[in-house]
Amino acid sequence: MDTNKNSYAVCFGEVLWDIFPTGSRxxxxxxxxxxxxxxxxxxxxxxxxxxxxxxxxxxxxxxRSWNISTEYIQIDDEKPTGxxxxxxxxxxxxxxxxxxxxxxxxxxxxxxxxxxxxxxEAFVFGSLIARNEESKxxxxxxxxxxxxxxxxxxxxxxxxxxxxxxxxxxxxxxxKMNKAELRQIIEFLDKEYIxxxxxxKYLQNYFDLNEIVLTKGSKxxxxxxxxxSYDFSAVSIEVNDTVGSxxxxxxxxxxxxxxGKTPDEIMKQAVALxxxxxxxxxxxxxxxxEEFKSFREEHYGQTI
Length: 304
Known about the structure:
By secondary structure, this protein is α/β, with parallel strands linked by helices. It is built from ten helices and 13 strands. It has helices spanning 29-39, 54-65, 111-118, 133-143, 162-171, 179-188, 196-207, 245-257, 263-278, 289-300; strands at 8-12, 16-20, 23-27, 43-51, 73-76, 82-88, 94-98, 122-126, 149-152, 174-178, 211-215, 221-225, 228-232. The chain has a nine-stranded mixed beta sheet with strand order 5-4-1-8-9-10-11-12-13, sandwiched between helices. Strand 2 (16-20) and strand 3 form a beta hairpin. Helix 1 packs across helix 8 (245-257), helix 8 runs antiparallel to helix 9 (263-278) and helix 9 packs across helix 10. The radius of gyration is 18 Å and the shape is globular.
């Protein structure tokens, strides 16, 4: 495996407890990305905030047990650690009730953040973190320092403010979205959705966006770079649950994108890791890189 511990990624946003009928799991989209980047042997820093409470202490213990840096995790003495009440439908799809006004809504900018973000190979963020003014303002300041800005759209109703989404799309270098989010964005822009290609081209032109990744679940994924596009079929697996599948896809994608690999290598890693995590329970299952590598080679051979 290629490793370069001098390079690292920064994930900014929510870390929380997903509370499922079967128990609680550490989660939050940017943290799920961070967890799986770490599994891919990418050094990762997480900028977030937790409460000074039992749930926060438990999160810190969990994150440290995974040997992920907690250096940039802030502690809030007033707001509680974030929680999400999650349930599954009959298709294994998760539905979330995201508790509002919690610690991660109040991430403060710190002097050390500038150098941290400036030197990162990727700065990863979503739209949910900007539902509150304090974390939103911190995000908008940090984006200006980043050399490669990765926007994971990740709409979570009712926390969708399209003026903000437009701002983030306009600042991003790479955007990852799913098919439903693509349709929503096109509609927000008062444009009729016709097909994937014309919609993506419209967004690339409108926002001066070079790279867009479109995920389509069992129908695979597409990677648009400039005027080129690369299509990849989904890996056939038995779905355990879909929690964090898009986040792990993004982690797989970035692990090879940071290394400067080809679109083919980048997308095979992304599709394989997304499928691997979907075959397991939860967004941050216990696994080794070697286990994932065996899964990937089973489906793609030794081509990465």
